[in-house]
Write a structure and sequence with these properties.
Layout lengths: L4 E5 L6 H16 L3 E6 L14 E4 L8 H7 L3 H23 L3 E4 L9 H5 L7 E4 L4 H4 L3 E5 L4 E5 L6 H14 L3 E5 L2 H13 L3 E4 L14 H7 L7 E7 L8 H9 L6 E7 L11 E6 L4 H10 L2 E4 L8 H8 L3 E5 L4 H4 L7 E3 L4 H12 L5 H15 L2 H17 L1
Parallel strand pairs: 1-2, 1-4, 2-3, 4-5, 5-8, 8-9, 10-11, 10-13, 11-12, 13-14, 14-15
Antiparallel strand pairs: 6-7
Helix pairs in contact: 1-15, 2-3, 8-10, 9-13, 11-14
């Protein structure tokens, strides 16, 4: 009997949503219940990136845009993005026509400059699953927050389309695709999308985010500290930086550190190095970009606590990764974070953008009055019970089977 063909699709091959898509595709291929292919719009992956039983298809194999598109980009980024969108849409629809899959599982597509209109052009008999990693598919922005200092509402918007165009495309898709299932990775996302799914009488599911298997391997804290030259006379905070540091709340962290005596306090920063203000007594180590999960796990394991001061997020993977290695997370109370970080049981929470509250937490933790080892252990046990790749694969397998039998 022929196995059903499943496509796991995303815009990129790296980043949070793509990492989860990679994990799922690999696990599905190893279980061998489906003929699984992993499609994306990044250049082809390095050898060994995917398991041997998984076919990879790069829908945009060239690193550079076509010459004419690059020239147009110099004059109008919006026009160039629309051309890119048309090019990617054509590549995807041609590949679907050739492969004739039985089911397509969509993750993020906005970085490929695709939106809901493309999904409406996929043959109507193919069931679609769309995992909502951020709010963009349902709200036309990835996340939003109120900037406390200015009182201004910020929306993190993506792509070359207007909000009106995106919401119109969303409504057309939901009205016309009866075999579309939306999947929320957290109760927070499920709550946000519930009015929409009820209005359109759509089926929806919840499958929690998971962490890579490398984080589930016990880490030797002493060896990790030695690897990164972290001395025991300093209380080390870990921070993962990105290009979008305003949304990630790095200014909140700097304001918090400015309110305390930083002598004996250290900051281990990985990712894209932010601009760090001069803070007397603070020891800073900058690692830069990390390209391996094994290496990243040792960074989390080496610090005393991991700080995630984000202003707008649905549920950052970094918090789960920290918890998986047993390092205490200190995170803002936004999005889906409170579902995972139970205050004073599996980590610590502070009100979003409240630098004074974050400063007080840092002071409390470095005074060693709090049972960090015990809380780190509880955080790891929670991840092992709720957020493993195997759990995700089993849940999605049940969804696939239901859709394929419909």
């Amino acid at each position: 009997m022929k196995k059903p063909g499943v496509i796991v699709l995303s815009d990129q091959i790296s980043g949070g949503a793509a990492t989860l898509a990679n994990l799922l595709a690999n696990d599905l291929a190893e279980r061998a219940e489906f003929n699984v292919e992993r499609w994306h719009f990044s250049p082809p992956a390095r050898s060994g990136f995917f398991c041997a039983g998984l076919r990879e298809l790069s829908l945009s194999p060239n690193r550079k845009r076509p010459v004419l598109e690059r020239l147009v980009k110099n004059f109008s980024r919006k026009v160039a993005a629309r051309w890119r969108s048309q090019r990617h849409e054509s590549a995807l629809l041609r590949a679907i026509q050739t492969a004739k899959p039985d089911l397509i599982h969509i993750h993020n597509i906005h970085s490929a400059d695709l939106n809901h209109s493309t999904l409406l052009k996929i043959p109507a008999h193919i069931p679609l699953i769309w995992t909502i990693h951020d709010l963009w598919p349902i709200k036309a922005h990835a996340c939003s927050w109120l900037e406390c200092d200015t009182g201004e509402r910020y929306r993190y918007e993506i792509g070359p389309w207007s909000r009106r165009d995106l919401l119109e495309a969303r409504n057309h898709l939901l009205q016309q695709r009866s075999n579309l299932t939306l999947v929320a990775p957290s109760a927070y996302v499920a709550r946000v999308m519930r009015p929409l799914t009820r209005r359109h009488r759509m089926h929806n599911e919840m499958v929690p985010h998971v962490v890579r298997k490398e984080f589930l391997v016990p880490q030797d804290r002493a060896a990790s500290r030695t690897k990164w030259n972290l001395t025991d006379d300093v209380f080390w905070l870990g921070v993962g930086a990105t290009w979008n540091n305003n949304r990630k709340g790095m200014d909140v962290l700097w304001n918090a550190l400015a309110q305390i005596d930083c002598k004996g306090l250290g900051l281990l920063v990985w990712g894209q190095p932010p601009t760090i203000p001069e803070l007397s007594g603070l020891t800073v180590k900058i690692v830069g970009s990390v390209d391996s999960a094994e290496t990243l796990a040792t960074l989390y394991a080496g610090v005393d606590a991991f700080v995630c001061p984000t202003k707008g997020d649905t549920g950052p993977l970094s918090v789960l990764e920290s918890m998986a290695v047993g390092t205490v997370p200190v995170a803002s109370r936004v999005g889906g974070i409170p579902e995972r970080v139970k205050h004073e049981e599996r980590g610590y929470l502070f009100p979003s953008q409240d630098a004074a509250a974050l400063a007080a937490l840092i002071e409390k933790l470095r005074s060693r009055q709090q049972p960090l080892e015990q809380i780190g252990h509880a955080a790891r046990e929670y991840v092992l019970a709720q957020h493993t790749p195997e759990t995700q694969t089993l849940q999605y397998t049940k969804i696939y089977q239901r859709l394929l039998q419909a």
